[in-house]
Amino acid sequence: MGNTLFDKIWDAHVVSKNEGFPDVLYIDTHFIHEVTSPQAFDGLRDRGLPVFRPKQTVATADHNVPTIDQHLPIKEALSRYQVDMLTKNSAEFGIELYGLGHPYQGIVHVIGPELGITRPGCTYVCGDSHTSTHGAFGAIAFGIGTSQVEQVMATQCLLQSRPKRMKIEVNGKLNLGVTSKDIILYIISKISAAGGTGYFVEYAGDTIRSLSMEGRMTICNMSIEMGARGGLIAPDETTFEYVKGREFAPKGNEWDKALAYWKTLYSDDDAVFDKVLTFDAADIEPMITYGTNPGMGIGVTQKTPATNSIGTDERSSYTKALAYMDIDDDAAILGKAIDYVFIGSCTNSRIEDLRQVAAFVKGKHKADHIIAWIVPGSKQVQQQAIREGLDKVFIEAGFALREPGCSACLGMNEDKIPAGKYCVSTSNRNFEGRQGPNSRTFLASPLTAAAAAITGCITDVREMLELENA
After folding, report:
1. Could you give the angle at the alpha carbon of 466 between the alpha carbons of 465 and 470, nearest 5°?
2. pLDDT in tens, the chain (470 residues)
3. What is the DSSP-derived secondary structure letter of residue 25?
4. Which one of 10, 40, 49, 456 counts the least CB within 10 Å of its CB?
């Protein structure tokens, strides 16, 4: 019996294995940020320990940072304190920090790939659930808790039980206006926000293979939103071409050796998965969520489910979610007025996302009542967008291009959606208050979000694209 890609990577990183106990798993790179690292550093101090391998730890400030006037002191006291502590701790323990003002600063799951730190066949952890993003490169990557952050700092290893393996195949050609974000929202809507619990997911099929690395990162990013431990995609020429030549990618003979190994990273034909799911790309239309978890999603032209179609065990939470969102059951949400549009987050803030939005909004202008924020995922993305003139396109369309950070993905910084307001967001979570106390979130792709900004309401972007292509 052959091995899955996951098992090949996992087995290559097991330091110690004992029956009835978790494996001791070696971690190649540990990403840290300002929110989940302070307590871990304090734990090391209390025990008189150094960071075991500081060169394999990469720090950046992202969750708490403002996205305007980053050269000025941070206004929110707690945010300022956490960013200051990251600076202090990184200096004390000898860790490279890409803080505010650094040309490599940005969202942790954006900078790792763009710098060539994220590579096939490696293990990555971070005190952030969306670490699964890095799995797009054919790597094992997952989020960890604060106590585990300390464990990795002290040992470069982690106690982990091997999860079950799931394969999700998507085959066929994507329809007009359908993107990688729509693929993953569709999958989650079909299997629920708990459908991947206990599994590590490998995404496969010709639809997945057709995606760019940015698209693949979006898919793997939201693996956690179906309850999975993480997600990964076997590396191929698209992967290798993306990594080659990046700042910290292998060079010369080291590249040749790495590439030879990377080409062995795939699931064998006779590998056995614990569960296999298959989807047809032709069934996917632009998606939108309507509730308060990412599994509550529908095609943009569809109606919300009727309450009597929901199982009795879930009916109470379903009606509670609709009440929070002030949305009716068995009703269309197409045409529903919104207030904000947020294009950004570790899910959709890469240069490809910004290029796609700029191409769509060029020559158009947002609705007068809409506040539209575009937040690049890193300083490098921001500078690339400026070099390409995307900033001018956004300004002419009435969109604000801000500075890098997690921004309105979560209510941890100054970029909050006001209570009761609706935001079409390219982020990954639509929990109650996620974007600010009592804010209301519709998750969607960058294209669908851009269309909503132009029309001022939830819109089927295909209608606009068809007019342009006529």
Report:
1. 120
2. 799 999 999 999 999 999 999 999 999 999 999 999 999 999 999 999 999 999 999 999 999 999 999 999 999 999 999 999 999 999 999 999 999 999 999 999 999 999 999 999 999 999 999 999 999 999 999 999 999 999 999 999 999 999 999 999 999 999 999 999 999 999 999 999 999 999 999 999 999 999 999 999 999 999 999 999 999 999 999 999 999 999 999 999 999 999 999 999 999 999 999 999 999 999 999 999 999 999 999 999 999 999 999 999 999 999 999 999 999 999 999 999 999 999 999 999 999 999 999 999 999 999 999 999 999 999 999 999 999 999 999 999 999 999 999 999 999 999 999 999 999 999 999 999 999 999 999 999 999 999 999 999 999 999 999 988 87
3. E
4. 49
CA distance 271 to 8: 11
Sequence ranges of the chain with CATH classification 3.30.499.10? 5-161+227-263, 307-469
Report the half-sphere exposure of 330 (CA within 13 A, side-chain side).
5
pTM of the model: 0.97
Phi, psi (rounded to 5 degrees) for 221: -55, -40
Nearest CA-CA partner of 342 in 397, 284, 410: 410
Q: For 244-283, give the DSSP string.
A: TT-TTS--HHHHHHHHHHHTT-S--TT---SEEEEEEGGG
- Classify 307-469 by CATH class: alpha beta
Residue whose tokens read 């600063």: 105
CA–CA distances in Å: residue 132 to residues 111, 122, 434? 14, 12, 20
Helix H or strand E encompassing 15: strand 14-16
Phi and psi at residue 364, to the nearest 5°: -115, 175
8 sits in which H/E element: helix 5-12
Phi-psi bin for 330: left (phi > 0), alpha (psi -120 to 50), beta? left
Q: How far from 361 is each of 250, 270, 337, 366, 399, CA to CA, in Å?
A: 38, 47, 19, 8, 9
Q: Which CATH superfamily hosts domain 5-161+227-263? A: Aconitase, domain 3 (3.30.499.10)
